[in-house]
Amino acid sequence: MSATPAEMLNDLPSTTQSETIDTAATEIVAAPIHNVLLSTLTSARGHLQGLLGESGFGKREMAIAALCGAATIAGVCGGKGLKKRWRLRRKKREGNAASEALTVAPGTGSNTDDSSRRASISSVNFSASLIAKHTALISVSTPHHNYEGIRIFHRVHPKAALLPPRLPLVVFLHGLGGQIPQFFSLIEYLVHFSHVLAIDLPGCGGSSFTNKDWSAYTTASLCELVAEIVNKYRGEGQDVVIIGHSMGCALAISLVTKGGLLEHCAAGVVAISPKAEMSEKEAKAAQAAVKLPEWMFDVLRRIDRQGGLNSRSVNRFVWEKANEDVKRLQLKFNEESRTPVWMRMMKGLRLPTKEEWLEIRVPLLLLGATEDKVCTAEEVGRIHGWFDPKNFRGGSSRDSGRAGSVSDIEAAGAEGTILEETVSEAEGESEPKNGKAVSAASIAKDTHHHTGVVKKCIIPNAGHGVLYESPNVLCGLVGEFLSKHVNETLSLGWQLLQLKEDKWLLKNFEKWSKIQSVSPRIKSKDGRKISPFRAMKTLRQNDANGHNPIEFSKKWTDVGDIIDISHDMPTYDPDTFGGGITYHKYSTVSKIPPTISEVAGFIALVDSILATAGRSPDRLIACHCHYGFNRTGFFICTYLIERLGFSVKEAIEAFKEARPPGIRHPHFINELWERYCKGLQRAPTF
Questions:
Q1: Which is higher by pLDDT, 126 or 472?
Q2: Per the record, where are the segments of Polar residues compositional bias (predicted)?
Q3: Which value, in Å, is the radius of gyration of the alpha carbons in the chain?
Q4: Is 640 helix (H, G, I), strand (E, B) or coil?
Q5: Phi, psi at residue 85, to the nearest 5°?
Q6: When comparing pLDDT for 29 and 683, which is higher?
Q7: pLDDT tens-place string over residues 180-234
Q8: SS3 call for 74
Q9: Predicted pLDDT of residue 496
Q10: Band of residue 164 on the pLDDT scale cut at 50, 70, 90
């Protein structure tokens, strides 16, 4: 059983300085040392503010940090105490993290002012049994380093044998201080229609921190590690799609760009919250941070977490209006990030140059968040602007972008024009969902600049933790990109059509027989918003259990119209309805979310029915596909949202309450969240 957010997060360590300073005697002994450390920290304060934000550390925080550090040194000078205990506690914490199973209870976050855009964080259960079954600790040797205890999650599509060969492998790469569970919603979504591989980089999440060599944590070394793991799990001739977050984007681009270790098998890249370049100020701040003693940086991190859910540590990564569950999860992730690993990766970090971005030959999706303070939406826009055809003036140069290495701060270069034309999705507008997919093999091998599709979307009301702040919208955007621009087989709808069985096979007939025939009238949870709908399964002309036109007319006397949205001819005779029931056929295809035009047609049909002269407001409309869950739920929800003022969350929950378990297909649910996400910004596709 998966742990609930409360169970998972109730053991967070305290962030008060009382844990570090045990006795007044220790403070007195440490007093002279405190003054020295205070001076040292104060001198580094400006650089650290550049790394941790302008709110940084004030004089009070500097004094506390120095006092904590002085107490630590005093404990060591006394032959026992604080520094030893600090090391033991860190060792214990690292051991627990390394042995911990991937049991984070995932879900989606909601904010207090806009909860309609998101589900509860506990609404999605990331099966612990699934993780336990498909997680392993492996040893990896690269040309330059050996790594022990690397945690990976690998799951092969359970029905791969029934689908076209060489279904792409989707690889997840987390950011600096991140871990696999941050991708929980995307992983849970994608395992239904792709092979999935996720990696905890060394010292992160459940991976061991055994290799202490600083050179083992440079971007180049980590790319070698990822390439070794991917090649270990990639089948012969199998393409790879990489989904990276933050620093994971730098690894992804370095791997798939011209000359990259995975260029030969790359099929697409999804870059979530990528960093365009590191400013000179940021690089200097990072340099200052990695030069601090580890214990001192630990003290600063602990101070940064003061305030718990409302601390700078949390608010730096998630939207300030995110709910408590999201903030607790972020606090947990922050605390599980190991200081020595963070420092090594930061020192060895190298961001891809503009040229390296432009030299990738595969479809690229750039995703950002409006409230991201770490890798801002402007950063995403800058990268997107590099691909604007108007900015190409001949060949590109190695100096056209900065690598942003902490150890090599280059002078600022000229920036290209940033294209900021965006399309608001407030009215539910969206690009067509049934476009022809583009295979990786069809993309020309241009030797000068990127030739694949480049898309950019900015998700509203989410921060750097957009992965778990707004996962439904994120999943919808990623799913749409993969199916339309990478490979059409990477679509749950497409695969369900390929695996489709006769709906009236014995097992499917038994399934149909056991489900609810007709739902109660669909309304909001508080009863204030009432719809004209009942949802139902299709009828059978001679059904012995009474779900046939004749018996239906006698039992459901408040139904005046039937809307049949199934694609096939009905399995009943509409002419045998009694009681003045009018039958309407509105054919749609199963397994695939209805298009915008189909939704518009459905809403127009319902409007025309309700506008019929003399129609009683108590006269209802019954809607069905085959089982009455996915297409039926989707169409009804769109009407609730567009005509009756329901939020996405309210509509989904209202349908689920009336017809449990509600909409079953995750790609239908994600499509609703994406399509009706107010404030979602889409830039022109290059």
A1: 472
A2: 108-117
A3: 28
A4: helix
A5: -70, -35
A6: 683
A7: 999 988 998 899 889 999 999 999 999 999 999 999 999 999 999 999 999 999 9
A8: helix
A9: 78
A10: confident
Q: DSSP letter at 192?
A: T
Joined together, the tokens standing for residue 242 give 């990489």
According to CATH, where is 3.40.50.1820 located in the chain?
A: 145-278+349-390+398-435+447-459+469-495
Q: How far is CA 123 from the centre of its chain?
A: 15
- Checking phi first, is residue 19 left (phi over 0); if not, alpha (psi -120 to 50) or beta? alpha
Query: Domain 145-278+349-390+398-435+447-459+469-495 in CATH: superfamily?
Result: Alpha/Beta hydrolase fold, catalytic domain (3.40.50.1820)
The span from the CA of 3 to the CA of 103, in Å, is 7
Give the phi and the psi of residue 365 in degrees, each rounded to 5. -115, 120
Q: Report, as an integer, the average pLDDT of 336-346.
A: 94
Dihedral over Cα of 14, 126, 269, 256: its sign: positive
Catalogue the E-assigned strands of 53-193. 135-141, 146-155, 169-173
Burial class (CB in 10 A: 0-12, 13-18, 19+), 617: exposed
What six digits make up the tokens of 594? 């209805």
Distance, C-alpha 462 to centroid of its chain: 11
pTM: 0.69
Query: Which residue is associated with the tokens 């995403």?
Result: 380
| Tokens describing residue 357 | 């971005």
DSSP, residue by residue, 410-428: PPP-PPPPPP---EE-TT-
Where does the chain hold its CATH 3.90.190.10 domain(s)?
Answer: 506-677
| Cα–Cα distance, 301 to 68 (Å, whole number) | 12
Task: State the Cα–Cα distance between residues 94 and 670, nearest whole angstrom.
Answer: 36
Instruction: Report whether pLDDT(42) > 60.
Output: no
Give the pLDDT band of residue 163 (cuts 50, 70, 90).
confident
Is the pLDDT reported for residue 598 higher than 70? yes
Locate 85 and state its tokens: 């205990």
User: Could you tell me the end-to-end alpha-carbon distance of the chain, in angstroms, rounded to an integer?
Assistant: 45
User: Is the pLDDT confidence value at 44 over 60?
Assistant: no
Domain 506-677 sits in which CATH superfamily?
Protein tyrosine phosphatase superfamily (3.90.190.10)
- pLDDT-above-70 percentage for the chain: 70
Tokens (6 digits) for 166: 């060489």
CB distance 389 to 420 below 8 Å: no
258-268 mean pLDDT: 96
Residue 664: which of 590, 563, 577, 585 has the closest Cα?
Answer: 590
Give the number of other Cβ atoms within 10 Å of residue 544's Cβ. 9
Q: Note every long-range contact of 659-664, with CB atoms under 8 Å and residues 24 or more positions apart, other chains counting.
A: 659/516, 659/519, 659/522, 659/535, 659/628, 659/629, 659/632, 659/633, 660/516, 661/629, 662/629, 662/633, 663/629, 663/630, 663/633, 663/634, 663/637, 664/629, 664/630
- Per DSSP, the residues of 149-181 read EEEEEEE--TTGGGS-SSPPEEEEE--TT--GG
Least confident of 43-47, 173-177, 388-392: 43-47
User: In the prediction, which pLDDT does 422 show?
Assistant: 33
Compute the average pLDDT of residues 353-378.
95
Strands 620-624 and 559-564: parallel
